[in-house]
Design a protein that fits this description.
single chain, about 170 residues, alpha/beta, Rossmann fold, six-stranded parallel beta sheet, globular
Length: about 170
């Protein structure tokens, strides 16, 4: 089973553990020997998912927008996690020559083309910018790709009063 991830980057600190636990529970139903997680390894939901896949005994595929993604888009605070996950990935691939909004859209499309299920760490709020989590969910559903929304009770994003569980 190939599972992709979309989700919020700006998770409140207590939410990280809630999401980690929910992802581990969701992944437990799959045979680890047949499990591949596909992630761009972004901070937040993507990185939590990638680690959960590895912890479950699955394989990780890092699908990056471009070779310069690490140096131009990954925050200094996230670099150690990004580098560790990249090192543990069984495959790292890029979809464009340089990071751009189009490269991010192309990476998202490539992920959706290569998976059988999408996990979405999503608070249910429409995207405030093009290419956000809600847009990825809409694109997956338009392809008739199954989507599992993960938003544990009590989860919230930074700066939010706390969106409800779906």
């Amino acid at each position: 089973m190939r599972i992709g991830i979309t989700g919020h980057m700006d998770l409140a600190a207590p939410t990280v553990e809630l999401v980690r636990t929910a992802l581990r529970t969701a992944l437990a139903r799959f045979d680890p020997s047949a499990l591949t997680g596909v992630s761009c390894l972004a901070e937040g939901a993507d990185a939590i998912f990638a680690q959960a896949v590895l912890d479950a005994g699955g394989r990780l595929e890092a699908l990056l927008p471009a070779p310069d993604y690490r140096d131009t888009r990954v925050s200094p605070a996230h670099l150690p996690v990004f580098d560790a996950l990249t090192h543990r990935a069984h495959r790292v691939r890029c979809v464009a020559e340089a990071s751009s909004m189009q490269a991010y859209a192309d990476a998202n499309a490539a992920m959706l083309d290569s998976i059988g299920l999408l996990f979405a760490v999503w608070d249910g709020v429409p995207s405030s910018k093009k290419g956000g989590t809600a847009d990825a969910i809409t694109a997956a559903r338009a392809r008739n790709l199954p989507v599992t929304v993960i938003w544990p009770e009590g989860a919230r994003r930074l700066g939010s009063a706390g969106a409800g569980a779906l």
